[in-house]
Specification:
Length: about 725
């Protein structure tokens, strides 16, 4: 994909004066009628810019199309039945323009008047611009209007233009409203030109072609020979060809240009925020960081190809890659910590929530811990190609079910840079290609960790095995690649997980919430209960397996154990909220919802009747993540363990144990609450699928005639024995 450019820096100076051009396809809808909702949203954005102090100049197409629609209607009303049977003549384009101009301006006046903004109609012709005095007067008039916060609305006056066929004649100083917008941007010394179209921007081919790719930054030297244009707009005059020509002229005249969709909400505002929408044209684009000819698809395909090279290595070679990565992390600990400190400082300065900053920090000893987990993973049995089941299908026909990598994984995670290391090591161990997108708050940490890891991967496999996605704008493109990417694992907020699940056909593995419970039964050991409850909440409050709700048997209120538990939490700075029963008895604020993940030193407390009440509460308000019971009654414990339908259920131990490393998986890519494929901490096993390998001696089906099926289970040899025996 193209290397990301900070668009706010692409503008030569602070943007003050903006020219916005809306095309016919944006202004009008079906039948040539005004697209009222779409145009209204654009007017709203322009009015807001105007009130924020920007100088806004609007160039609007659509008059001819709107006039044609109105004249056709008038023609229909005034026609007899006999007239309608005759061939209909094409309406005069100039007449359409004259009728449409007044209608279009009437709409703009009505719409902007509702927002307390004044507009002025500015009809110009190509011949006018040949007059130097006209140009000077135009500049002075527009300058005076902008000073009074008036928005000039320009359109070519097609009704009196000397051009014989406005749709076909492209001679002159300008030849359509795209080139008019570029001319005005140069003439009026604008800081930015935005051309709104009916597509997202400039593509390498027709936008309807699935192989076409959006060009984020246009480099004339690179792209002018590569682009294949589709048919021009059926509604307007020039289509994308005209827009590109106008954009290049303006850009090389010193005006940055963005071509983007007028259909998408808030695109104008997004452009001004420096977000990567549409296609940027800039005279210095060729001088910026090199443009890499890698799209989202190319990155995913490269990861798949590298993963196949990884799988072709011996088990020992794959193991050594992990050991080299562990060593490289330790050797680069100082620089990793320095980059992480910069991320943490920036997050604190930006006012991020305490829980997010806590997840961002790589504490002392973290690198050593990560290296240890990678070495543990390296020493595990090689998961690739294990024979899981062996069957004699018929005499001399042997079938094996073997473990196999999934393919290419896309992991989207927030805040925690250590997640990058865990995920990358698991991908390598399981033979998968990997695309990673971390949160912007961990940008420096992720970049250095990615570099350290990929530098340790031998060239025979290639660093493209693990791709780092640096722009959030790439995610929608990646989520469309269901033919290349095999699994998406989002690690982050409920909002992140839900957005990804709703935006892709690719299978998604993960959990949206970590509403974890600890239920303290009446038969608990008090000291044990205090230790477990305190650890579950305080060991790492921001973790997804931290306790968010404490459930207590009603009898513990009467014997004082509840108060001891509450004191143990409050003494360590935990803010408590109560359910309907607990809030009044403990004199603490009532929780707004039981289904809330605090991710901080806070939790909810509620009193329940018994273990069945606790189970019902967990099923109603939990997230099927990790839940725990503290009790000495083995019968009650078994009821809880059997009936609580969560990914991990624990007896007399902290919820914090639900972790890939602590479970002995080496590491984890996340914790899944799904019931399909993998559940709980997802380690190497969760990143594998199966393949079937059949070995025969020339057998054919032939309608199953003459085949004697035996379907006999055969012993599966251990890998070492199989190798010794030459299998």
């Amino acid at each position: 994909m193209e290397e990301e450019i900070d668009r706010s820096r692409a503008f030569a100076k602070d943007v003050k004066r903006i020219v916005v051009k809306v095309g016919t396809a944006v202004v009008t809808g079906k039948g040539g009628r005004l697209a009222l909702g779409r145009l209204g949203a654009i007017c709203e954005q322009l009015a807001e810019l105007n009130s924020d102090g920007f100088e806004v100049i609007l160039v609007s197409s659509g008059a001819v199309g709107l006039g044609r629609q109105r004249l056709r209607y008038r023609q229909l009303v005034n026609s007899s039945f006999a007239d309608l049977q005759k061939p209909q003549t094409e309406l005069d384009g100039k007449a359409c323009a004259g009728v449409g101009q007044s209608s279009l301006m009437a709409y703009y006046e009505t719409m902007f008047d509702q927002m307390d903004v004044t507009v002025a109609q500015m009809l110009v012709t190509d011949s006018s611009f040949r007059d130097k005095d006209f140009r000077k007067q135009l500049s002075e008039t527009v300058k005076a209007m902008l000073k009074m916060r008036v928005i000039p609305v320009f359109n070519e006056n097609d009704a009196i233009s000397t051009r014989k066929a406005p749709y076909k004649d492209s001679t002159g100083i300008f030849w359509d409203n795209d080139s008019l917008a570029a001319l005005l941007a140069l003439e009026l010394k604008a800081d930015l030109l935005i051309l709104l179209s009916d597509v997202e921007g400039l593509y390498t081919g027709p936008p309807s072609d699935p192989k076409s790719k959006l060009i984020h930054t246009y480099v004339k030297e690179k792209h002018q020979e590569e682009i294949t244009f589709g048919e021009k707009s059926r509604l307007g005059r020039g289509g994308m060809t005209a827009k590109v020509k106008a954009a290049v002229n303006a850009a090389y005249g010193g005006i940055p240009v963005i071509i983007t969709s007028g259909y998408a909400a808030e695109n104008i505002a997004k452009v001004l925020k420096g977000l990567r929408v549409g296609t940027l044209f800039h005279q210095d684009a060729h001088l910026w960081a090199r443009v890499v000819d890698t799209t989202s698809r190319d990155m995913a395909v490269a990861a798949r190809e590298s993963s196949r090279k990884l799988q072709a290595l011996s088990s020992e070679d794959r193991k050594n890659i992990l050991l080299d990565i562990a060593t490289a992390l330790e050797e680069n600990e100082k620089i990793i910590k320095a980059e992480n400190d910069l991320d943490v400082a920036a997050a604190q300065e930006a006012g991020y929530e305490e829980s997010l900053v806590a997840r961002l920090v790589m504490k002392p000893g973290k690198i050593s811990s990560l290296a240890a987990s990678i070495r543990q993973l390296a020493e595990m049995e090689d998961p690739i190609g294990r024979v899981l089941k062996k069957t004699e299908v018929a005499d001399g026909l042997i079938l094996e079910k073997t473990s196999s990598p999934l393919g290419v994984l896309l992991i989207v995670f927030e805040s925690r840079p250590d997640a990058l290391v865990q995920i990358a090591s698991l991908a390598i161990r399981s033979g998968n290609g990997l695309l990673l997108k971390g949160g912007k708050e961990a940008r420096r940490s992720n970049a250095i960790l990615h570099k350290v890891i990929t530098d340790a991967i031998p060239k025979t496999v290639g660093g493209k095995l693990i791709g780092l996605v640096t722009s959030r704008d790439e995610i929608p493109d990646l989520l469309k690649l269901d033919d290349v990417i095999d699994l998406v694992i989002p690690r982050g907020s409920n909002k992140l997980v839900s957005q990804i699940k709703n935006s892709t056909k690719i299978p998604v593995l993960g959990h949206a919430d970590g509403i974890c419970h600890v239920y303290v039964d009446k038969s608990c050991k008090v000291d044990m209960a205090k230790r477990v409850v305190s650890d579950a909440k305080l060991d790492y409050p921001a973790a997804c397996n931290a306790m968010e709700t404490l459930l207590v048997h009603k009898d513990l209120e009467q014997n004082g154990v509840l108060n001891e538990l509450i004191y143990a939490l409050q003494a360590n700075g935990v803010t408590l909220y109560g359910g309907p029963k607990a809030s009044g008895k403990l004199n603490i604020p009532e929780a707004k919802s039981f289904h809330h993940e605090y991710s901080s030193k806070a939790c909810t407390v509620e009193i329940v009747e018994d273990v069945h009440g606790a189970i019902d509460h967990i099923h109603q308000h939990g997230s099927a993540h990790t839940d725990c019971i503290v009790t000495e009654d083995s019968e009650v414990a078994e009821i809880f363990l059997r009936q609580v339908d969560s990914a991990a259920v624990i007896h007399n131990a902290s919820t914090r144990f639900c972790d890939g490393f602590r479970f002995g998986l080496g590491a984890e890519v996340g914790i899944s609450t799904s019931r399909i494929h993998a559940r709980g901490p997802v380690g190497v096993e969760g990143l594998l699928t199966t393949r079937w390998i059949m070995r025969g001696k020339g057998q054919v089906v032939d309608g199953d005639n003459g085949v004697a099926y035996t379907h006999k289970d055969l012993p599966v040899l251990e890998r070492t024995k199989a190798v010794e025996n030459g299998h």
